[in-house]
Every structure is written in C-alpha cells, then in structure tokens.
Automatic annotation (TrEMBL):
Entry keyword annotation includes Magnesium: yes
Residue ranges occupied by any RNB domain in the UniProt entry: 472-803
Chief location bin: nucleus
Compositionally skewed regions (Low complexity) per UniProt: 322-339
Protein name listed in UniProt: Exosome complex exonuclease RRP44 homolog A
Cell location: Nucleus
Organism: Urochloa decumbens
GO biological process, one term: rRNA processing
Record-linked SMART domains: PINc, RNB
Cofactor: Mg(2+)
C-alpha cells in the first residue's frame, strides 16, 4: 500500500519548496507476542505468553524513566518506531540505552514499526502539532495491539502525559502513569527508580517533600530559549561549556568564542543550577566586579563557597590567574582582574549523568518502609549534593550507590534525583574500582553475541589466500621482533632493521592488521567505535576489542605468522630517509621482548648475535632521530608515571614507585612517532578533506604563567615564544639539584593543552600543528588493537594505496567530526579513569603504611602549599593554618613564590625540599584521603 507524505523546506536561496515522498505501508509487520496465531509463523517472539500485561510506552516514559526501564522487573515492553524516532531526536544517549535493551536477547523489549503498518499509520491533520500527531499515533498503535491480541493478554499504555492519558481512557484504552503501574507490581524498591514528573506531566502521589518548606528563592529563573537566542545574537549573552574546577567546586569557567576568553563563574549562586559539562548562556558582570581571588587550598568538607576560590591545577581545568603582584591574606581592597567574570542565566544543553557516591550520614527515621528523604554525596567534588527520596534507606547506608538527577528548582539548595542502583560496600576495592569506571563512563559490558559472531573461527591460521593476495607482501623471512612492557599479550607493533649492501638500513614498522578482521559497519566495528580506546587501570584492562583478537589473532607474538600493515623506510646511517613505502604484509616475529630484556641485550657487550645487533642499530638511528626532533623544537616533557607491584592473590599493591624510562622505551617511541608522521602525510595527500589527524594546540600565555612565575622565582628565565625556544630553555634549566630539571619539566607538562583528534576538513592547515612534537602533521596508526582512531587511519591508508575502497562514512563530514569528538571524549575518560585507579591503589597502599619521606614544593598558596613526592609520584596539599583559617598570619609573595610568617624566620619557597609524613585519614565519612603533614 502506498501513501504520499508531503512537507515544505527552505532552499539555500530562500525559496519555499514542497517535497512529496512515497511512504510504503505493509500488513505483514508482526506484533512480537509469542502465542499470536496470526503473526507467530515468522515473528520474532520477544513478548512472553505469561506476561501480566503488554506495555506500550509513551515517549516521555522512555526519555525520563530509562533507569526504571533498564531494571529487569520491567519486561514485555513494546517500543513504537514513532517513539524511538522522537527519543533519538531529543536525547541520543537515552536512545542508545533503549536500543541496547531492544537488541538484548535476554530482555523482552520489542520494536513495532507502527509508521510502516497499514493499520497503525496515521496521517497528519490540518492544524495538528507534531507532538499531538505522535501522541495520536501511540494511541492508535495501542488500540491495534488491544484489538489484535483480544482477550489473550492485557495491553496497557504507560504515559506521564496528562492529556495523552485522558484521551486514551476516553478512547477505551487501558492507560496508567508510571508510578501507578510500578505500585501495582508490589516491589517498593522500584518506586525509588521512578523520576518525579515535571509540572506538565501527571502528578506523582508522594513526590512532595513534606518537611518544612523553605519558601526563599535561592536561584534566579533561567531565561527562556527565545531570549537566550536573541541575547547571543546581540552579544548580551555568551555561550560555552561550563567546567567546574576539579579542586574547588565553587569556581567554574566557561570558554567563550564570542569574546575569545574564558569567563570565571564564582559561587553556586552564579553557577545557577548548572552542572559540569552543561552548555550555558552567561552574562558578564560589570567590570568593577571582576576582582582577583586569592589562591587557597580548599578544605575537603568546605560548605560555604563565596570566599573560596582556588587557582586551578592544570590547563584542562581552567585558565590561569596572570597576576604576579605581592599579596597578603590580610590585604585590603581586591585588585581588578582582566579576566571576565560572569553568571549563568540559562541552560542551553544539560549534561546530567548518573553519579556515584553515598548517602550523607543521618539518623534513621522511625519505622521502616515509608518514604525517607536523604542527601546523596558524589565522590566527584564538582557535583553538588543531590536530594533523593527512598523507601529502602536502611539498605543504602554505607553503600556506594548510583543516583541520577531529575530536576533543580529555584527554591531548592540542592537538585532532586532518584536512586538507580547499589554498587557495593564502601571501601571495598572492587566497589571503588567500579565507581571509577562509572564516573568516567567506561563501557565494561561483556561483548554481545552479535559482536562475537564477527570474530574469525579459532584457532586462526594464515590461509593460502592471504599469501596469494597481490597487495600483501610476504616478509616472513625478515628478522622482525617486538619490544613491549613486561607481560604484554596484546602486541600490536614490531620492527626490523636490515643492513643493506649499500650500507644503508631497511627499517620497518609492522602494525597488527586489525582492519582485516574488523570490517566497517559490522557490530564489531560499531562496538569498537563506541568504546574508542582500551582502558588501563592498575592490574586491569578493559578492552576495546574482544580478547580473541587482541591477544591471539591480531597480536604479533613470537614464532607465529601474523598479518600486518607495514611502513618501510630506507635510511642512511645518519637516519636520513631515502624512500618510504607502505604495504600490507605477512610477518613471523622471532622474539617478543620486554623493555628490560631489550635494554639488557643492548648493554651486554658480550652479545653480538644478529638480533642484538639489530637492536643496537635501531637505537643508534633512534638517537639521531630524537635529536633532530628536539632541534626542530619538540618538547621533552616529564610526568610522574606511577608503577605498582601487585599481589597475585589479593591484587592489593605491595610496592609503589616511579616507572623507569629506558633507552629501549625511547627507541620504540621514536620509530612509532616516525611511522605516525609518515602515514599522516600519505593519507592527507590523498584525502585532504576527510583524514583523521591529531593536533596539539599551542599553550596560551595565561597557561604558561604559573611555569614562568615559578622559574623566575628561582632565577630561571624561560623563553616560551615557540616550542623550540621552550625546549632549549628546559634543556638549560639546571642547578646542583639532580631532580630540579625533571620538576621544571613536570610543571611545564601541566601547562600544556590536551592533544586532540580532528577531521582535516574541519580546520585550516596551520591548525594541524602538533606543538609538543613540533610536527606539522601527525596521526595515530601504530596501535589499532587499543585505539579506534588507528583503525580509521588504517582504512584511510588502505584506500590511499588503492587496496581497499574508502568506506561511505568518509563522505559524511558531520559524522566524521562526531567520530573524532567521541574519540577525544573516550581518550580523556580513559586517562581520568587510569589516574583515579592510581589514586585508589595509592590509598590502599598507604592505608597500612604511614610513611615519612622527602617532598618538593610545587605551588604556593595563602594557607599552605602543594608538594610533589618524587619517590612515589604523589602530589598533595600541606596546610600551614588550621582548617577553615584562610591564611592566618602568613603572607604570600607571588613574585618570589614564597610564603612567610611575619616576625619569624619561618618561610617556604617553591621547589624547596621539605620532610613530610603521609597517612590515610577520613576527614569526612566515606571520603578517605592521603593526608600530608610537615615533620
């Protein structure tokens, strides 16, 4: 059956054009109910014959009650295509969650294509809004199910839309609100998952907080979107993403393109109910209110925010305070800052997520089973406390739980939310690790059967077709080897170095040919694209790809034949590249060494076997290449990478220390960098508009200010006019202290912006530059087992070599940009999860090991200073004043980076060595921390 759908659209020239499209309707779309005699022959029978009711859910239910729908108690749900389309347009994250439920074979969620069914398709009516039309389509589909299934099962429309429910009942349908349906299930705990409806929806019976009402208006009403849009256009308001200071939750920053600067937002009232990550509209305050704030270490249990403003720790958190004048805590009027200060007037796009934490300790209410009100405290200090109501308070005390935000009223100091689920006992290592993963949105779900079905049969071996492929070179005769961290099983890179008759070297970088097994558009590819990267925690790895691929089929292990994608150079002994070629290949690695093993071979002068000679030749070339990079301006930065020794049985940390970098590490790094640069040049030449590249923006003057101030205070004059000038300055930053130079490099690292992926068509060539590497072009090619970016680049390179077609997605600019954005998001989250895992294991280690050690002062504050502990790679605050005392008698000299107590000879300066005591304390319930104190 054929229907015509017409609509109008506006052309680029401004003309109104009528568009008519054919809409095919069918009568063979099945209902999904198991016993249905009409449909059972060919239907996917997901709806249970024993179901108490078949639930047809409204769009508002999916959008706002997704946590409830994900609970196993909710089954036999019909998702109409009109509902899924609405959800996809309004909230992509919720759409992905409901889609996962629909394809999960263990859940009874059935998608019914009501817009394609002859009996459930509804035509648009004159004067009817799209929302009313969709509500009507939902009622029509519910009626069809009711008539189609007859007396065999009850069909129930679930909606929180007051008008839609009224019309449904008038039309003879069974309709209930979410709350009334959940109450009928007689599972009181489920009511905690029910989101309190908004004012336009059906009222929830006991949603009111019956405690004494606080009528005072705490926050300003948000401006309507029409006014925000007009204000943005006129320059009255400024749009940007709000980032809350990680070390002081009462200070935030909004990057604004319209004024080319970041706007400081001070205090919760000025944040006006916005959350970290929200896209907000900001109004600037009068310039005489742009006061500088003093730099304090914020207390863990800080509640009053208006006088607490902490200078951020890193470029990722916020801009720098550029003032370098001497100031004291007791000084009079504040100076006026050049940095704009503003307040949030509206929310353009919310970034509410689920949050991990625990309930604030409180007296248990008399009786049990009733509704109790509690405050949830997130582990992430940037998140305000959240008020929830629960019927299972006694089961949630002393537990890590997940809570979602529902609303935030102007009359309420805290947002309202609902309990989602319990993770486990507070302090339990597995529980706290899961919290780390949830907080950073790390996907830990097992790979689905659809994904696993994409894997090649095991055991996998090389086929005759692989060897016969004219686009794949047989390199099994070449002496290829790998060098990786100890115990590495997912080996995705290997090298060879062959001395040629003309005295030059043939050097090859061989990368696992992952795209031979991960094909575009498959469930395996889609899963890898969504995960973006493997995540490395202490003693644990969350894979981007299933283990049969990462540890077997694609892993370039010793003495097995594997498929690779190779970059091969001819190089002179001076590391000059004569020629470059790229090829798919077959290799057979002769050795899989750890960095320690490779270094030991190179250092042992008694060893002159071919493999050791190859290593030494590669190392000689790498040293020359590294020096050339540095001469171009590449930065040699430093970070405190912590290494744990883990107990094989308890998985608790036995020892902690700084990860040691050897020449072998640097040798491998050099050739991986060279391969990435070569591939970037190749793919951009062939695909100038759709290549996936990686850039590192230059740090701004404000970002470098803390480094310059610290250097100046110890007599160093750093030149930051270019990466080359900075690199040379860092090389010359030396004194009698052997750790001094590394400290300066660590401080320089923290001033840098994050490197990011981007689509070449989105930026101009000058913006492609990678500041840290001093490279005009860069990408990621060398780790496709662990990073989806490399998978994308492998496809681009294969197409550039004309050995594979470029997938259609590369024709879609916005989709490519979306891929790059997701990769940046996933990469950042993986980094944060890794750091949080290190912090967790650091707490576990020192919980039973109070320690005295040396530390270096790296930041001066008005009430103390921040120290770095070289032995353990740990950083933390030292308080010079009692908690809550904002500086006392101490005077801060910003110019010389020194804090002094008047009338005494007691003072502390940046980079000074101090003796400290380290132990784990719990200043607030459920928030243990590593406390550092002066000895």
């Amino acid at each position: 059956m054929l229907q015509s759908k017409s609509f109008v659209k506006k052309t680029k020239q401004g003309r109104i054009q009528k568009v008519v499209r054919e809409h095919y309707l069918r009568d063979d779309i099945y209902c999904g109910f198991g016993p249905c005699s009409t449909c059972a022959a060919a239907a996917e029978r997901k709806l249970d014959a024993a179901a108490a009711a078949i639930l047809v859910v409204d769009t508002n239910v999916v959008l706002h009650q997704i946590d409830l729908l994900e609970n196993p108690a909710i089954e036999d749900v019909v998702l109409l295509s009109v509902v899924l389309d609405e959800v996809k347009n309004k909230n992509l994250a919720v759409f992905n969650r409901i889609k996962a439920l629909c394809i999960n074979k263990a859940r009874r969620f059935y998608v019914f294509a009501n817009e394609q069914h002859r009996d459930t398709y509804v035509k648009d009516m004159v004067g009817e809004s799209s929302n009313d039309r969709n509500d009507r389509a939902i009622r029509v589909a519910a009626r069809w199910y009711q008539n189609h299934l007859g007396e065999s099962v009850k069909v129930l429309l679930i909606t929180n839309d007051r008008d839609n429910k009224r019309k449904a009942i008038e039309e003879g349908l069974n309709a209930e609100t979410v709350e009334s349906y959940v109450r009928s299930l007689a599972q009181p705990g489920l009511l905690d998952l029910v989101v309190v409806p908004t004012s336009g929806d059906v009222t929830m019976e006991d949603a009111e907080d019956h405690r004494p009402s606080k009528k005072k208006v705490i926050y300003n009403e948000h401006k309507p979107m029409s006014e925000i849009t007009s204000g943005l256009r006129c320059g009255i308001y400024h749009q940007g993403k709000l980032r809350v200071n990680r070390y002081n939750p009462f200070e935030a920053y909004v990057g604004s393109e319209s004024i080319g600067d970041e706007i400081v937002i001070r205090g919760r009232s000025s944040m006006n109910r916005s959350f970290d990550g929200d896209i907000v509209a900001v109004e600037l305050l009068p310039q005489d209110q742009w006061h500088e704030s003093k730099s304090f270490i914020a207390d863990d249990d800080e509640e009053e925010e208006e006088d607490v403003h902490l200078v951020p720790n890193s470029a990722d958190d916020a801009p720098r305070n550029a003032s370098s004048t001497q100031s004291s805590v007791g000084s009079s009027a504040p100076s006026v800052s050049s940095r704009p200060v503003g307040r949030v007037v509206g929310i353009i796009k919310r970034n509410w997520n689920s949050y991990c934490g625990s309930l604030q300790p409180m007296p248990m209410p008399a009786g049990s089973g009733g509704v109790a009100h509690a405050l949830f405290v997130s582990k992430d200090r940037r998140i305000p406390k959240i008020r929830i109501q629960t019927r299972q308070l006694e089961n949630l005390v002393n537990k890590r739980i997940v809570v979602a935000v529902d609303s935030w009223d102007v009359l309420s100091r805290y947002p309202s939310g609902h309990y989602v689920r319990t993770i486990g006992d507070i302090g339990d290592k597995e529980t706290e690790t899961e919290v780390v993963l949830i907080e950073n949105d790390i996907n830990t779900r097992p790979f689905s059967t659809q994904v696993l079905a994409c894997l090649p049969p095991l055991p996998w071996t090389l086929s005759p077709g692989d060897l016969a492929n004219p686009n794949r070179q047989d390199l099994r005769h070449v002496r290829v080897f790998s060098v990786d961290p100890p115990g590495c099983r997912d080996i995705d890179d290997a090298l060879h170095c062959t001395l040629l008759p003309n005295g030059n070297f043939e050097v090859g970088v061989h990368i696992a040919d992952v795209t031979n097994f991960v094909h575009p558009g498959t469930p395996l590819d889609e899963e890898a694209a969504q995960r973006g990267t493997s995540v490395y925690l202490v003693g644990q790895r969350i894979d981007m790809l299933p283990k049969p691929l990462t540890e077997d089929v694609c892993s370039l292990r010793a003495d097995v034949e594997r498929l690779a994608f190779s970059v091969i150079w001819e190089m002179t002994p001076d590391a000059d590249i004569i020629s470059t070629r790229y090829t798919k290949s077959v290799i057979k690695s002769c050795a899989a060494m750890s960095y320690v093993e490779a270094q030991a071979r190179m250092d042992d002068s008694r060893l002159v076997d071919p493999l050791t000679v190859d290593l030494r030749n590669l190392n000689s070339l790498a040293k020359i290449m590294r020096q050339r990079r540095c001469d171009r301006g590449a930065l040699t930065l430093a970070s405190a990478e912590v290494k744990f020794e883990i107990d094989s049985e308890t998985h608790d940390p036995l020892d902690i220390g700084i990860y040691q970098i050897r020449e072998a590490n640097q040798m491998i790094e050099e050739f991986m960098l060279a391969a990435n640069i070569s591939v970037a040049e190749k793919i951009l030449k062939h695909f100038p508009l759709c290549s996936l590249l990686r850039r590192h923006p230059s740090p701004t003057k404000e970002m470098l200010e803390p480094l310059l101030r610290t250097a100046s205070s110890v007599g160093l004059n750093l030149d930051v006019s270019s990466s080359k000038a900075l690199a040379e300055s860092l090389d010359n930053a030396k004194n009698n202290d052997p750790y001094f130079n590394k400290l300066i490099r660590i401080l320089a690292t923290r001033c840098m912006t994050q490197a990011v992926y981007f689509c070449s068509g989105d930026l101009t060539f000058s913006e492609y530059y990678h500041y840290g590497l001093a490279a005009s072009l860069y990408t990621h090619f060398t780790s496709p087992i662990r990073r989806y970016a490399d998978v994308v680049v492998h496809r681009l390179l294969a197409a550039a070599l004309e050995i594979a077609k470029l997938p259609p997605i590369f024709q879609d600019g916005p989709q490519l940009t979306g891929i790059a954005d997701n990769l940046n998001y996933r990469h950042r989250n993986a980094q944060m999860a890794s750091r949080a895992s290190v912090e967790l294991h650091t707490l576990i280690y020192f919980r039973t090991r109070p320690t005295d050690t040396e530390a270096r002062i790296v930041k001066i504050k008005a009430n103390g200073f921040i120290v770095f502990v070289p032995k353990f790679g740990i950083e933390g605050p030292i308080y010079l004043t009692p908690k809550g005392d904002k500086g006392g008698d101490w005077i801060v000299d910003e110019v010389h980076q020194r804090v002094t107590k008047p009338g005494t000879n007691i003072s502390y300066a940046v980079l000074q060595t101090v003796r400290i005591h380290m132990e784990v304390v719990e200043p607030q319930p459920h928030r243990p921390k590593l406390q550092l104190t002066l000895i």
